[in-house]
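@here heads up, posting the sequence + SMILES for the flavin mononucleotide run so it's all in one place. Ping me if the SMILES looks off, I pulled it from an old spreadsheet.
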Amino acid sequence: MTSTHSRIAPPEFGALMSPAHPSEEARRLLALRRSTSADLLTGPGPDDQTIDAIVEMAARVPDHRKIFPFRFIVLQGSARARMGEVLAERFAATSMDAPPERVETERRRFLRAPVVIVVVARIDPAHKTPEWEQALTNGAVCQTVLLAASAYGFAANWLTEWYGYDDGVMKALGLKAGERISGFVYVGTAKEAPRERQRPIMREIVTRM
Ligand SMILES: Cc1cc2nc3c(=O)[nH]c(=O)nc-3n(C[C@H](O)[C@H](O)[C@H](O)COP(=O)(O)O)c2cc1C
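bot reply: prediction finished. Complex C-alpha coordinates:
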Protein backbone atom coordinates (compact mmCIF):
# COMPACT_ATOMS: atom_id res chain seq x y z
CA MET A 1 0.00 0.00 0.00
CA THR A 2 1.35 3.43 -0.84
CA SER A 3 0.64 6.74 0.77
CA THR A 4 -0.13 9.21 -1.99
CA HIS A 5 -1.69 12.63 -1.58
CA SER A 6 -3.69 14.11 1.21
CA ARG A 7 -7.45 14.16 1.03
CA ILE A 8 -9.14 17.30 -0.26
CA ALA A 9 -11.62 18.07 2.51
CA PRO A 10 -15.23 18.22 1.35
CA PRO A 11 -16.81 21.66 1.77
CA GLU A 12 -19.28 22.46 4.53
CA PHE A 13 -22.95 22.17 3.59
CA GLY A 14 -24.01 25.43 1.89
CA ALA A 15 -20.45 26.64 1.20
CA LEU A 16 -19.92 28.65 -1.99
CA MET A 17 -18.57 26.28 -4.64
CA SER A 18 -16.50 26.87 -7.73
CA PRO A 19 -18.76 26.23 -10.75
CA ALA A 20 -15.86 24.87 -12.83
CA HIS A 21 -12.35 23.55 -12.38
CA PRO A 22 -10.37 24.31 -15.55
CA SER A 23 -7.38 22.00 -15.56
CA GLU A 24 -5.15 20.68 -18.31
CA GLU A 25 -4.37 17.66 -16.11
CA ALA A 26 -8.06 16.88 -15.62
CA ARG A 27 -8.63 17.13 -19.39
CA ARG A 28 -5.70 14.80 -19.98
CA LEU A 29 -7.16 12.26 -17.56
CA LEU A 30 -10.60 12.39 -19.18
CA ALA A 31 -9.23 12.24 -22.73
CA LEU A 32 -6.78 9.41 -22.07
CA ARG A 33 -8.31 7.30 -19.28
CA ARG A 34 -7.94 3.60 -19.97
CA SER A 35 -8.80 0.57 -17.86
CA THR A 36 -6.05 -1.90 -17.02
CA SER A 37 -7.26 -5.50 -17.04
CA ALA A 38 -7.44 -6.92 -13.49
CA ASP A 39 -5.17 -9.72 -14.73
CA LEU A 40 -2.48 -7.11 -15.35
CA LEU A 41 -2.68 -5.50 -11.91
CA THR A 42 -0.36 -5.92 -8.96
CA GLY A 43 0.65 -3.92 -5.85
CA PRO A 44 1.09 -1.38 -4.57
CA GLY A 45 -2.44 -0.18 -4.12
CA PRO A 46 -3.87 2.84 -2.36
CA ASP A 47 -3.47 3.08 1.42
CA ASP A 48 -6.53 3.42 3.66
CA GLN A 49 -6.49 7.21 3.60
CA THR A 50 -6.37 7.24 -0.19
CA ILE A 51 -9.16 4.64 -0.42
CA ASP A 52 -11.26 6.89 1.83
CA ALA A 53 -10.55 9.84 -0.47
CA ILE A 54 -11.43 7.81 -3.58
CA VAL A 55 -14.81 6.66 -2.24
CA GLU A 56 -15.56 10.13 -0.90
CA MET A 57 -15.00 11.55 -4.38
CA ALA A 58 -17.12 8.80 -5.91
CA ALA A 59 -19.96 9.53 -3.50
CA ARG A 60 -20.22 13.09 -4.93
CA VAL A 61 -21.99 11.91 -8.09
CA PRO A 62 -25.17 13.47 -9.43
CA ASP A 63 -28.04 11.82 -7.60
CA HIS A 64 -31.68 12.75 -8.28
CA ARG A 65 -33.38 13.67 -4.99
CA LYS A 66 -30.19 13.01 -3.03
CA ILE A 67 -31.10 9.46 -2.05
CA PHE A 68 -27.60 7.93 -2.21
CA PRO A 69 -28.67 4.67 -3.90
CA PHE A 70 -25.23 3.14 -3.43
CA ARG A 71 -22.74 2.04 -0.81
CA PHE A 72 -19.20 0.66 -0.81
CA ILE A 73 -17.49 -2.47 0.47
CA VAL A 74 -13.68 -2.33 0.48
CA LEU A 75 -11.98 -5.70 0.03
CA GLN A 76 -8.32 -5.70 0.97
CA GLY A 77 -5.76 -7.82 2.80
CA SER A 78 -6.96 -11.25 3.93
CA ALA A 79 -10.60 -10.46 3.12
CA ARG A 80 -9.69 -10.99 -0.56
CA ALA A 81 -8.60 -14.57 0.10
CA ARG A 82 -11.59 -15.20 2.38
CA MET A 83 -13.99 -14.05 -0.32
CA GLY A 84 -11.99 -16.06 -2.85
CA GLU A 85 -12.89 -19.20 -0.89
CA VAL A 86 -16.54 -18.27 -1.34
CA LEU A 87 -16.03 -17.78 -5.09
CA ALA A 88 -14.33 -21.17 -5.39
CA GLU A 89 -17.13 -22.90 -3.43
CA ARG A 90 -19.87 -21.19 -5.39
CA PHE A 91 -18.22 -21.85 -8.73
CA ALA A 92 -17.73 -25.53 -7.93
CA ALA A 93 -21.33 -25.80 -6.66
CA THR A 94 -22.96 -24.09 -9.63
CA SER A 95 -20.84 -25.30 -12.58
CA MET A 96 -21.16 -28.88 -13.68
CA ASP A 97 -17.76 -30.65 -13.81
CA ALA A 98 -15.82 -27.49 -12.93
CA PRO A 99 -12.16 -28.27 -13.70
CA PRO A 100 -9.96 -27.96 -10.57
CA GLU A 101 -7.70 -25.36 -12.22
CA ARG A 102 -10.70 -23.14 -12.90
CA VAL A 103 -11.83 -23.47 -9.26
CA GLU A 104 -8.30 -22.41 -8.28
CA THR A 105 -8.59 -19.36 -10.56
CA GLU A 106 -11.78 -18.41 -8.73
CA ARG A 107 -10.05 -18.83 -5.36
CA ARG A 108 -7.42 -16.30 -6.43
CA ARG A 109 -9.70 -13.87 -8.26
CA PHE A 110 -9.76 -11.07 -5.67
CA LEU A 111 -6.00 -11.42 -5.16
CA ARG A 112 -5.38 -9.94 -8.60
CA ALA A 113 -5.28 -6.44 -7.09
CA PRO A 114 -4.39 -5.16 -3.61
CA VAL A 115 -7.75 -3.38 -3.29
CA VAL A 116 -11.18 -4.16 -4.69
CA ILE A 117 -13.82 -1.50 -4.14
CA VAL A 118 -17.26 -3.07 -4.41
CA VAL A 119 -19.97 -0.60 -5.40
CA VAL A 120 -23.33 -1.86 -4.15
CA ALA A 121 -26.58 -0.52 -5.60
CA ARG A 122 -29.34 -0.04 -3.06
CA ILE A 123 -32.10 0.88 -5.42
CA ASP A 124 -35.55 1.57 -4.03
CA PRO A 125 -38.07 0.62 -6.74
CA ALA A 126 -40.86 2.35 -4.79
CA HIS A 127 -39.05 5.70 -4.66
CA LYS A 128 -40.25 8.66 -6.71
CA THR A 129 -36.83 8.71 -8.44
CA PRO A 130 -37.11 6.09 -11.21
CA GLU A 131 -35.05 2.91 -10.82
CA TRP A 132 -33.31 3.77 -14.10
CA GLU A 133 -32.01 7.01 -12.64
CA GLN A 134 -30.83 5.29 -9.48
CA ALA A 135 -28.95 2.80 -11.67
CA LEU A 136 -27.41 5.67 -13.68
CA THR A 137 -26.14 7.17 -10.45
CA ASN A 138 -24.49 3.84 -9.64
CA GLY A 139 -22.71 3.85 -13.01
CA ALA A 140 -21.45 7.34 -12.30
CA VAL A 141 -20.13 6.14 -8.92
CA CYS A 142 -18.11 3.34 -10.53
CA GLN A 143 -16.72 5.65 -13.23
CA THR A 144 -15.72 8.18 -10.59
CA VAL A 145 -13.88 5.47 -8.65
CA LEU A 146 -11.89 4.79 -11.85
CA LEU A 147 -11.14 8.48 -12.37
CA ALA A 148 -10.25 9.14 -8.75
CA ALA A 149 -8.00 6.07 -8.60
CA SER A 150 -6.23 7.30 -11.73
CA ALA A 151 -5.86 10.81 -10.30
CA TYR A 152 -4.11 9.22 -7.31
CA GLY A 153 -1.80 7.30 -9.63
CA PHE A 154 -3.45 3.88 -9.64
CA ALA A 155 -4.63 1.65 -12.44
CA ALA A 156 -8.13 0.21 -12.17
CA ASN A 157 -10.69 -2.07 -13.77
CA TRP A 158 -14.49 -2.07 -13.33
CA LEU A 159 -15.84 -5.61 -13.56
CA THR A 160 -18.98 -7.53 -12.73
CA GLU A 161 -18.00 -11.02 -13.98
CA TRP A 162 -20.15 -14.02 -12.96
CA TYR A 163 -19.86 -13.48 -9.21
CA GLY A 164 -21.46 -10.05 -9.45
CA TYR A 165 -24.70 -11.90 -10.15
CA ASP A 166 -24.33 -14.87 -7.81
CA ASP A 167 -26.74 -14.92 -4.86
CA GLY A 168 -24.33 -16.87 -2.64
CA VAL A 169 -21.48 -14.44 -3.28
CA MET A 170 -23.74 -11.45 -2.69
CA LYS A 171 -24.92 -12.97 0.60
CA ALA A 172 -21.33 -13.61 1.72
CA LEU A 173 -20.51 -9.97 0.94
CA GLY A 174 -23.35 -8.96 3.25
CA LEU A 175 -25.73 -7.61 0.62
CA LYS A 176 -29.27 -7.13 1.86
CA ALA A 177 -32.44 -8.14 0.02
CA GLY A 178 -32.83 -5.97 -3.08
CA GLU A 179 -29.21 -4.83 -3.16
CA ARG A 180 -27.14 -5.54 -6.28
CA ILE A 181 -23.56 -5.29 -7.41
CA SER A 182 -22.82 -2.27 -9.62
CA GLY A 183 -19.20 -3.20 -9.91
CA PHE A 184 -16.06 -4.67 -8.47
CA VAL A 185 -13.46 -1.98 -9.10
CA TYR A 186 -10.02 -3.54 -8.90
CA VAL A 187 -7.40 -0.94 -7.97
CA GLY A 188 -3.62 -1.36 -8.05
CA THR A 189 -0.57 -0.82 -10.21
CA ALA A 190 -0.28 -1.88 -13.84
CA LYS A 191 2.24 -4.66 -14.55
CA GLU A 192 2.21 -3.49 -18.14
CA ALA A 193 0.71 -0.54 -19.92
CA PRO A 194 -2.66 -1.12 -21.60
CA ARG A 195 -3.09 -0.36 -25.29
CA GLU A 196 -5.77 1.87 -26.71
CA ARG A 197 -8.94 0.00 -27.69
CA GLN A 198 -11.53 0.70 -30.36
CA ARG A 199 -13.58 3.80 -29.70
CA PRO A 200 -16.83 4.96 -31.27
CA ILE A 201 -16.70 7.06 -34.43
CA MET A 202 -17.93 10.31 -32.97
CA ARG A 203 -19.78 11.53 -36.06
CA GLU A 204 -21.89 8.33 -35.91
CA ILE A 205 -23.07 8.94 -32.37
CA VAL A 206 -23.25 12.73 -32.17
CA THR A 207 -26.11 14.64 -33.74
CA ARG A 208 -26.35 18.40 -33.67
CA MET A 209 -29.77 20.06 -33.89
C1 LIG B 1 -21.07 -2.42 -15.68
C2 LIG B 1 -19.82 -2.90 -16.34
C3 LIG B 1 -19.40 -4.19 -16.12
C4 LIG B 1 -18.25 -4.67 -16.74
N1 LIG B 1 -17.87 -5.95 -16.51
C5 LIG B 1 -16.84 -6.46 -17.18
C6 LIG B 1 -16.47 -7.82 -17.00
O1 LIG B 1 -17.09 -8.55 -16.23
N2 LIG B 1 -15.42 -8.29 -17.73
C7 LIG B 1 -14.72 -7.48 -18.60
O2 LIG B 1 -13.78 -7.96 -19.23
N3 LIG B 1 -15.03 -6.17 -18.75
C8 LIG B 1 -16.06 -5.64 -18.07
N4 LIG B 1 -16.38 -4.32 -18.24
C9 LIG B 1 -15.60 -3.48 -19.19
C10 LIG B 1 -14.33 -2.86 -18.58
O3 LIG B 1 -14.59 -2.25 -17.35
C11 LIG B 1 -13.72 -1.76 -19.47
O4 LIG B 1 -14.58 -0.69 -19.54
C12 LIG B 1 -13.41 -2.25 -20.85
O5 LIG B 1 -12.44 -3.22 -20.79
C13 LIG B 1 -12.97 -1.09 -21.77
O6 LIG B 1 -11.84 -0.43 -21.30
P1 LIG B 1 -11.81 1.14 -21.02
O7 LIG B 1 -12.51 1.35 -19.70
O8 LIG B 1 -10.36 1.51 -21.01
O9 LIG B 1 -12.55 1.82 -22.10
C14 LIG B 1 -17.49 -3.82 -17.60
C15 LIG B 1 -17.92 -2.51 -17.79
C16 LIG B 1 -19.07 -2.04 -17.18
C17 LIG B 1 -19.49 -0.63 -17.42
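MO: The beta strands are 41-42, 70-76, 115-121, 155-159, 180-190.
MO: One more: DSSP finds seven helices and five strands in the chain.
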